[in-house]
User: Fold this.
Amino acid sequence: MRKTLLSVALAMASFGLQAADANYQVVPLPQSITANKGAAFVLDGATAINVVGNDAAMMRNAQFLKQYIKEVTGIELAATGKKTITLALNAKIANDEGYVITVKAKGVTIEGRTPAGVFYGIQTLRKSLPVEQQASVNLPAARIADQPRFGYRGGMLDCGRHFFSVALVKEYIDILAMHNLNTFHWHLTEDQGWRVQIDRYPRLTEVGSVRKQTVIGHNSPVYDGVPYGGFYTKDQLKEIVKYAADRYITIIPEIDMPGHMLAALTAYPELGCTGGPYEVAQSWGVFDDILCAGKSKTYEFAKNVLDELLEIFPSKFIHLGGDEAPRKRWEACPDCQAEIKRLGLKGSNGFSAEAQLQCHFLNVIAKHLEAKGRNVIGWDEVLEGDIVPGTTVMSWRGVAGGQQAAERGLDAIMTPTDYYYLDYYQNKSTDIRLIGGYLPVDKVYSYNPVPDDASEALKKHVIGVQGNLWTEYIPYKQLAEYQLLPRMAAIAETGWTDNKLKDFNSFKQRNVNLYKHYKLLDWAASDDMFH
Assistant:
């Protein structure tokens, strides 16, 4: 830790910085930081924020900036004044999420092509501030020109295995926002619990949201004997969608199908191949009972559920899962076999007729969504057959899924287990019980989704990256934070900063101040990287 702090001090000295100066070397690292001649801008209580125009989103940006400055430094900005931080839109900035910060002695300007770009400039200024209550902070004269490497930069939170409060979901969104991440992939249904109110199917929450008990340890024979559950009302979902949108984050809901549906089957057993009885899962893993793809009522159910969600979530994408769906029941199901025969499905390319039936099921739902102006994302198992051309593939079982998707002309989001599964251990010497694996922050940081020698197809079709927090073994707030941070910062830098600018030692140094921001917000980040 002492060596890291010394390195930061040296870096500050090379930029002419003092202890109470802002340091623009933040995470994610901006694409260009140029020191300019001239005196610093003094940020103090006489400083005011000036918004050019009366755009509501820009006015909200101003409130965020005012809040951040007070939170980090204790400085309460003035309502008006001659010394200003000006927020403005500038159509000459090429990237919709790009921004330019210009710091001169007489004032600061943060410009973006859109309010989102201005917001990311505000995040950079926020993270540049020293975390210390003080009367003033010097902002060295500089020009920062920045834009993201990828348009999709996401984080996934699994609220199916363990349910998290509205307050914690909002905190997760705050974490994404601080790191310039623009997409919240929300995993809302699981074998172990259904978490969203659906008016047409009230038993989904009345029955499917609660499991009788939870296994202790790694699927041991011992259970805790305590009922566990929870779900989000439609009003709560709308509240969270707005909270995210105010921070330029799109929420993509995931209703995993046809697998991971035991909670739904428990509520509506007629949707399964055997008719049940079923039980909301009390242990972890993959279960044989999935939705029956041979019954018309199953397709009707899926469409009706999604139609209600479309009224709440305005996202272009809807995630249908499509992963870990054993077809054992389908092989013995008269309805599924009759549907396979009716459709003339046959095994091909190493995949069974049942695999083709799964693709048919997902394609029917995808076309339903497409007719309503939405597109589908699925885990990379959706490649096991012919899928709707507009489908985006989330490559999780390594990188091969993304490569295969690109070769087939499909967009891909890279979220490989070996690099971006944040439920894995980041410290081998811990008493915490997690799912397994080992993923220290330096390995997370090392991943480059599109190497220089990548195929043209991969360069064209990889639209971004995403970190995933699965929660079988993550039941509470502090552990979720510990698993996320600082590894989410490493993912954010890969998603935002050009690969040629990335350097892990620099990242460690820049995390010293970022870690102080985490502590200020009472986020229980891991400090393993500093030891």
User: Anything to note?
Assistant: The mean pLDDT is 95. The longest strand covers residues 250-257. DSSP finds 18 helices and 20 strands in the chain.
